[in-house]
Specification:
Chain B: This is ABC transporter ATP-binding protein. Chain B: GO terms for molecular function: ATP binding. Chain B: Residues 1-21, 350-375 are annotated as: Disordered. The complex is a heterodimer of chains A (329) and B (375). Chain A is of the alpha/beta class and 329 residues long. Chain A has a single domain (17-114, 160-320), classed as P-loop containing nucleotide triphosphate hydrolases (Rossmann fold), CATH 3.40.50. Chain A has helices at 55-62, 90-96, 108-111, 118-130, 134-147, 153-157, 166-178, 196-213, 224-230, 248-253, 258-265, 303-307; strands spanning 17-26, 29-39, 44-48, 72-79, 101-104, 184-188, 216-221, 233-238, 241-247, 313-315, 318-320. In chain A, helix 4 packs across helix 5 (134-147), helix 5 crosses helix 7 and helix 7 runs parallel beside helix 8 (196-213). Chain B has one domain: 3-Layer(aba) Sandwich (Rossmann fold), CATH 3.40.50.300. Chain B is built from 13 helices and 12 strands. In chain B, strand 1 (31-47) and strand 2 (50-66) form a beta hairpin. The chains are: A alpha/beta (329), B alpha/beta (375). At the A-B interface, helix 7, helix 8, helix 9 and helix 10 of A face helix 9, helix 10, helix 11 and helix 12 of B.
Chain lengths: 329, 375
């Protein structure tokens, strides 16, 4: 399995994050099947695909939130000087999690602790991770809330999460995630529970903040249009396999993998008059084909696709895992 | 009032013959909301052992006409009153003021009179899985309305269930399964089949395709389109997704804080929004490779603490002094279109945004939002 080699991507020689052949199994189900990707410093990457594609699982694995008893993990996740995130113990993780790798969860209402005030949760992160004193932490917390666009931060510090709107809760999540200036921010569907106008506000906020800090960001998104607007590169996943990866514009303007093409053809834009989705859905883990997992629904499938896994091969600026891709246009 | 389209939902005084001339006079609209207001009283503590009762208007002066065969999208953010409007239409909530009519009769009376109202107005709920009893098989779920309304004999039930499943694109062997054994898309199809079982004339759907994968969503949208065409259904579709609205519905009604702020043909409204809020929604919808704009400042105000004058004035980029004086009413601006705005957007202001690339605002008005962020 090849990762994105450094000559393919316009970033520093050593990427911040390099995942190589990540495989994750729960019981008999192989949730991730040889996922490889890289992320440069200051880069934004979108993981896209339908439910069950393994997008959130990758984010959770990168955050060290998948227990050893829960799943078997193979492959490597290199983060900066840490050779493999999967081999870290709790002690090792406590130096990274929240400090250098932070996460914005999908449902802020559920991710924030209902028993503690916003201030309490923010201050405890600052005190524990950065060793700040009480007063210092409080001042920093106020500055952070102001930074994420919260009016009257003084009053909000003593509010409980349920007293805030969904958009406000998500802003608090972003503030907590950014509290220690992480190098890598994971944003798992940060806006899927929000109204569209609030969605635009939150995505803008995240992009502005990570750019100001020179941090990198992995977004988990299901909306291709939103991915094209917010990320430099995208990785298209299907049932735990990488189908296509590369610069957002190239891939979405000219999808080569049949699955990317299908996904894009289902996107509903204002003024769309016809949709032509394929019938059926993702097969269950029990009857996944041994080769390309998309083979059962693929219009371009060849005989060998079902049995043989197409390698993720570089082609120009992108990587494609397909024996019979769409022609270049 | 005898309008046949959304065009007519304007104050009678402002109605001109030309705007309402396109209808057949004998054809009563299916639903008609006349200045519907729905207030809730809430009690909140104001001090030790002190409480204060306050009134909250979830709907305020809503006029909407649903003619037979129409397809209308109700669009708005959370807190805009979409669900309350739905409850009023279904007779689950009585208007505090104004009238909700079904075929010219008050909805509540029609509902109380016989089962006919419940039979002809079917509902698809937002959370399809929660709307289906987990202890009933798919067959029992779909057979229930058939038996309740006495639509077929016991011996025909199997065939009818099979036919309904086929109609929504599900294999017959799914009838023996329980909802828990179905995927998200299949559960929605079962909910649609159950709604169709009573042979309704109106289908009301609350976010029926949200939270699904794009390919599943596309399949369901095509299904709903086909059903509407084949069965001549009147469709009332609540959605927050403008793409869904434009794909499925000929007309659109945009709501903000309990009021309808703009109505008209979906294509016309979305390509040239006249209300600044419609424009903000339009701009906030993700669009391939367009820069992410920040179209709307702040959040929807509390209905307990409504701004003076136009309730959108606090967030409106085009606000002027007289907007804060009193509340604008929905008034016709073009054929089939109405807007509740003192200063509907001009062609120049609209077209400045139509390409997705905002250009400088006209000199007499401030620019919308902040700076652009490109990917």
């Amino acid at each position: 399995m090849t990762g994105v080699s450094s000559d393919v991507v316009r970033v520093d020689a050593a990427p911040l994050l390099a995942i190589d052949g990540l495989t994750l199994e729960r019981g008999q189900s192989r949730i991730l099947d040889g996922v490889s990707l890289t992320l440069g410093r200051g880069e934004t990457l979108a993981l896209v695909g339908e439910s069950g594609a393994g997008k959130s699982t990758i984010a959770f694995a990168l955050m060290g939130l998948i227990g050893r008893t829960e799943a078997r993990i193979a492959g490597k996740m290199r983060f900066d000087e840490v050779d493999d995130l999967a081999s870290l113990n709790e002690r090792g993780w406590s130096r990274l999690r929240g400090r250098r790798i932070a996460m914005v969860f999908q449902d802020a209402g559920a991710a924030l602790d209902p028993c503690y005030t916003v201030g309490g949760q923010l201050v405890s992160v600052l005190r524990r991770q950065l060793g700040l004193g009480k007063r210092e932490a409080r001042e920093r917390a106020l500055a952070l809330l102001e930074g994420v666009g919260i009016n009257d931060p003084e009053a909000r510090l003593s509010a409980y999460p349920h007293e805030l709107s969904g958009g406000m809760q998500q802003r608090i999540m972003v503030a907590i995630a950014l509290a220690c200036n992480p190098e890598l921010l994971l944003a798992d569907e940060p806006t899927s529970a929000l109204d569209v106008t609030i969605q635009a506000q939150i995505i803008r906020l995240i992009l502005t903040e990570i750019r100001a800090r020179g941090a990198s960001c992995v977004f988990v998104l299901h909306d291709l249009a939103l991915a094209s607007q917010s990320c430099d590169r995208i990785v298209v996943l299907y049932a735990g396999q990488v189908m296509e990866a590369g610069p957002s514009r190239g891939i979405l303007e000219n999808p080569r993998h049949p699955y990317t093409r299908l996904l894009k053809s289902c996107v509903l834009e204002i003024g769309t008059t016809t949709l032509d989705p394929p019938e059926g859905g993702v097969p269950s883990y029990d009857d996944m084909p041994a080769g390309c997992r998309f083979a059962t629904r693929c219009p371009n499938a060849l005989q060998r696709c079902v049995a043989e896994r197409p390698p993720l091969a570089p082609e120009g600026e992108r990587l494609i895992a397909c024996f019979n891709p769409e022609p270049r246009s | 009032m005898s309008e046949t389209s959304l065009a007519g939902q304007v104050p009678a005084a402002a109605t001109h013959g030309a705007e309402t001339g396109a209808m057949a006079p004998h054809d009563l609209p299916l639903f008609e909301l006349l200045d519907v207001e729905k207030r809730f009283t809430i009690t909140r503590p104001t001090g030790f052992l002190k409480r204060e009762k306050r009134s909250l208007a979830a709907l305020d002066g809503v006029r909407l006409t649903v003619r037979r065969g129409a397809s209308i999208a109700l669009v708005g953010e959370s807190g805009s009153g979409k669900s309350t409007l739905l409850r009023v239409l279904l007779g689950l909530a009585e208007p505090s003021d104004g009238k909700a009519l079904y075929c010219g009769q008050p909805v509540n009376e029609m509902r109380a009179r016989d089962r006919d109202f419940a039979r002809s107005v079917a509902m698809i709920y937002q959370d399809a899985r929660a709307s289906l009893d987990p202890r009933m098989t798919v067959k029992a779920l779909i057979a229930e309305p058939l038996m309740h309304f006495g639509l077929c004999g016991r011996d025909e039930v199997d065939d009818r269930v099979r036919a309904l499943l086929a109609r929504v694109g599900l294999p017959g062997d799914i009838a023996a399964r329980y909802p828990a054994a179905l995927s998200g898309g299949q559960v929605r199809r079962v909910a649609i089949a159950r709604a169709l079982a009573s042979e309704p004339t109106v289908l009301i759907a609350d976010e029926a395709v949200s939270g699904l994968d794009v390919s599943t969503q596309a399949q369901l949208l095509n299904l709903l389109r086909r059903l509407k065409r084949e069965m001549g259904l009147t469709l009332l579709f609540i959605t927050h997704d403008l793409g869904v609205a434009s794909y499925l519905c000929e007309e659109i009604a945009i709501m903000y804080l309990g009021r309808i702020v703009e109505t008209g043909p979906t294509g016309a409204v979305l390509s040239a929004p006249a209300h600044p809020y419609s424009l903000a929604l339009r701009r906030a919808a993700p669009e391939f490779f367009a820069p992410i704009t920040d179209p709307l400042e702040g959040e929807i105000p509390s209905p307990l603490d409504l701004p003076k004058g136009c309730r959108f004035a606090t967030r409106c980029a085009f606000v002027e002094e007289d907007c804060r004086a009193d509340e604008p009413v929905l008034a016709p601006i073009a054929r089939g279109r109405s807007v509740a705005c003192r200063h509907p957007l001009h062609e120049a202001e609209r077209s400045a945004f139509s390409s997705g690339v905002p250009s400088p605002a006209p000199p007499d008005r401030p620019a919308t939002g902040g700076a652009e962020l490109s990917a």
